[in-house]
Amino acid sequence: YQEFGRNAVDAAFDGQHGVLFVYGQTGSGKTFTISNEDPNNLGVLQQAMKEVWARIGNDKEHEYKCTLTYVQLYKEALTNLLEDSKDPKDKELRLQTANDGSVSMVKETNGLPVDVSIANDQQTMDYFRVGLGRKETAKTEMNATSSRSHTIFCLSLSKKKNTGPVISRDTVDVDSGNASFELQGKLYLCDLAGSERASKTQATGNMLDEAASINGSLLVLGRVVAALTDKKAQHVPFRESRLTRILQYSLTGNGNTSLVINVSPSDDNTEETLSAIYFGQRAIQIKQSAKRHEVVDYKVLYLQLQADLDSKNDKLIQAAVMEEIAMRETAVTGLQEQLKFAENESALLRKENAMLKHQIAALNGGVVPPPIASFVGTAATGGGGDAGQWGDMINTLKSSLADKQKALMGAEEDKVRLGHQLAEEKLTVFRLAEKLRAVVIKYQNERAGWTEESNTLRAEIAQAKGSEYLNVMGSTDADASPRSEPPTSPTIDGSGGDISTVLQTQLDRAVNALRELQVERVSLVVYQHKAQQAIKLLATENMKLGGTLGGS
Length: 552
What we know:
The chain is of the alpha+beta class. Helices cover 59% and strands 14% of the residues. It has 15 helices and twelve strands. Strands 1, 2, 3, 6, 9, 10, 11 and 12 form an eight-stranded mixed β-sheet that branches. A two-stranded antiparallel sheet has the order 4-5. Strands 7-8 form a two-stranded antiparallel ribbon.
């Protein structure tokens, strides 16, 4: 088993057809080699099954599904050893070529597969012992339990990665055990009946017919091996026997095939021993190129591609929204800078206005402000003494007030203009938010449609292939359901606040600032009116002062 049987087991786990069959004359120990039940010296089949189920039990990363077929070829009639029916017709099988070129066995009556599901080593060996009890055997002069038929024990093994949450991925990698791919391997253990001579076995009647059938199928097997190793051969007679037809896929090098030659130690069987060794030497020359059987699980692949599509749609929508938000943030930043400049200018005007108020208050109280006092002092000390200089001063004050009033009006106009721009930006952002909500609602409706189509497809596939796909869909739906929640509104500052809330706050601040400026403007108009009255009073006093100076 360590030299030959384990290679076949390794091949089956790798998605190949691992084949081991024994060849030799009757009584040479073929059945003993394949299926000895002695606990201290188990046969190849028993050791292989123990290792198969041990590997499956230790592998937590993959899901396995195993089925078993146990058939015999008796006088060129293929029958199912695991069929419990009493009707012989229900046990009859026929060969059928699969899509990959391999040969499968189905019921003669209805064409259905004959595989039985197995879950552990004990169940497998129970089926084997049932089939072994139904195998055709007889006592001959050379073997007390001579096999009168060829038997084929086939374990089919499907292996795929455990199904987990379906997530987006960029590439599909079969070697990494992607869940959308499944490896389907088979392990064939063939116990061929031994060739025999009637003169030695003393077979007569039905046993003689059995011997003729066994020798005929083994003869065809020898011719097939000879043709496969002869480069000049133009035809390989696979269809001349059902035995070679069953082994065709393996003998042509598509499987990982091993051959055990059993020989007798007796000198009386030297000729049969040499014949068996010659057969083994020819079989060794067959070149092998085992094929790996990878099957796509379209259900999981569909879910995987759907996850990719959802991820790409999410990224596109998010990129478009963030680009639009960035543009609006730039516009709002510009308006905020303009508003700050207007506030600075207004503060400067308020400062100058306060100074004018102080001067007017001083004039009303009969106190000459420092600038006017210095001007009057200059006039009184011989700076000209011209009364017209008071008029110049008054004109200068009027001009200064007019300039300040003009600057104040310009600032007010700028503030009104900025207020309109902010209102327009607020309306634009509101429309953008409504558009984004419409896109999200449309996307949610499309997702609901995709979910309904996915559920329909799941029901169809479950009806066609079985309920195991419901488990896949169940797990993926559970993981995919949170995706249907409304997306969180994008934020401007990353703090999680809504765009409209942030803009509303900024606009409220701007409106309050404009209201304060409006109040200040009214106050400035009042003070301007008082200043004009003060100027008129100064002009009257100037005229009186001029008349007094002229009379003297």
